[in-house]
Specification:
Structural class: mainly alpha
Number of strands: 2
Largest sheet: 2 strands, parallel
Order of helices and strands: HEHHEH
Number of domains: 1
Helix content: 55-70%
Distance between the termini: 72 Å
Oligomer: single chain
């Protein structure tokens, strides 16, 4: 096993033209659609990148990759798997709207 690793390192050194550090590669993001939500519902929510649940899962995956790369500096980043579900997105948006309303109510009560 170490013989194979040594060969790979030798080839990487030759290919990288004098640089012995691995370039930082962006992690692969895999989106899986779950649930039985119709396509119209998903399209009504807008682009996937703007979804609250997408952003949350992406942040968690990015942090996990950073921790992994900190412990294993010579390895590649792991895949970030994101589950897309329109119903969960609707719930997340409703929760976010409720939080905004509560903050507005608290601010108006403080002004009185």
């Amino acid at each position: 096993m170490s013989d194979i690793r040594r060969r790979i390192n030798t080839i990487e050194k030759k290919v990288s033209l004098g640089r012995y550090e691995r370039p930082t590669l962006l992690p692969f993001i895999v989106c899986l659609e779950s649930g039985n939500s119709p396509r119209e519902q998903r399209e009504a929510l807008g682009p996937i990148e703007t979804w609250i649940t997408y952003q949350e899962q992406l942040q968690v995956g990015t942090k996990a990759n950073a921790e992994y790369l900190k412990d294993n500096p010579g390895s590649l980043a792991k895949f970030i798997t994101i589950e897309l579900d329109a119903e969960k997105e609707y719930q997340a948006r409703a929760t976010k709207n409720n939080q905004k309303q509560l903050k507005a109510e608290k601010l108006s009560q403080q002004d009185e």
